[in-house]
Amino acid sequence: MTVLKLKAVGNSTGVILPKDILAKLGVERGDELFVVEGPDGITLSPYDPEFERQMDGARKIMKKRRNVLRALAQ
After folding, report:
1. What's the pLDDT score for residue 25?
2. Residue 53: which pLDDT band, with cuts at 50, 70 and 90?
3. d(Cα 51, Cα 36) in Å, to the nearest integer?
4. Which of 31, 34, 37, 40 could be a cystine partner for 27, CB 3.0 to 4.6 Å?
5. Is 43 strand, coil or helix?
6. Does residue 12 belong to any structural domain of this protein?
7. Residue 41 — very low, low, confident or very high, per pLDDT cuts 50/70/90?
8. Is the pLDDT of residue 55 over 90?
9. Residue ranges making up the domain that contains 50
10. Is-above-0.90 flag for pTM?
């Protein structure tokens, strides 16, 4: 278990993430993290959940209309 400490950053409060946590998330300084609220609490994710939901819809359409898309690509 990793314990994170809140620190003052100007007029705000920030959290410093250790290198091993950054590596597990696959992010580095300057990247964005999304705060996702779910039934188990709050999760930090490098992926935008709204974009992922939209991509799931697009994948379903692409699978259903594969032949039409193939013809359009030619």
Report:
1. 93
2. confident
3. 13
4. 31
5. strand
6. yes
7. very high
8. no
9. 6-73
10. no
User: Would you say residue 10 lies in a domain?
Assistant: yes
Q: How many angstroms separate the CA atoms of 30 and 12, rounded?
A: 18
- Residues 54 and 15: their CA atoms lie apart, in Å, by 30
CA distances, 42 to each of 11, 64, 69 (Å): 23, 35, 39
| Residue 32 to residue 50: CA distance in whole angstroms | 14
Q: Which two tokens stand for residue 14?
A: 């920030």
Q: How many CA atoms lie within 13 A of 55 on its CB side?
A: 6
54 falls within a domain: yes
Within a domain: residue 1? no
Question: How many distinct structural domains can be found in the chain?
Answer: 1
Task: Give the Cα separation of 15 and 12 in Å (integer).
Answer: 10
pLDDT value at position 31?
A: 93
Residue with tokens 């959290």: 15
